[in-house]
Design a protein that fits this description.
This protein has about 130 residues and is of the alpha+beta class. Helix content is about 40%, strand content about 30%. It is built from four helices and five strands.
Length: about 130
């Protein structure tokens, strides 16, 4: 299995705060799954958690390479932590269809936060020869 694609994104916490102030529930429900929202509500710095998840979703879309169109939904990408705290990504819907067509298997993810920004890097593994 080889690396097929890479995506990276950087999100300022202020951007997430503005979206919450302007659109609140509509923004949350459009971008984050119920589990992602619950996970963010359970931590001290909710904005930091949401910004990291937002950056991760953007990074995954960059490695898929299609952008947010043709039926792709933000919630087709879910980012949750495993029991050790490592972020993992689960894809569904149109994003899963696109990934399968590209022969993408597992997607590894790394998220970091500093000051008032969050950054995420996503690497797609798969077999390009199929």
């Amino acid at each position: 299995m080889a690396t097929l694609a890479h995506g990276i994104d950087l999100v300022d916490f202020g951007r997430i705060e503005q979206m919450l102030q302007r659109h609140d529930r509509r923004f949350l429900d459009r971008v984050f799954t119920a589990r992602e929202q619950a996970d963010a509500a359970a931590v001290k710095n909710r904005i930091e958690k949401l910004a990291g998840r937002f950056a991760a979703k953007e990074a995954v879309m960059k490695l898929i390479g299609t952008g947010w169109r043709d039926g792709v939904a933000w919630t087709d990408i879910e980012v949750v932590n495993n029991t050790l705290g490592r972020p993992e990504v689960a894809i569904s819907g149109k994003v899963k269809e696109l990934a399968e067509a590209m022969h993408i298997g597992p997607i590894t993810l790394s998220i970091t936060h500093t000051g008032n920004v969050a950054m995420a890097s996503a690497v797609a593994m798969g077999d390009a020869g199929k």
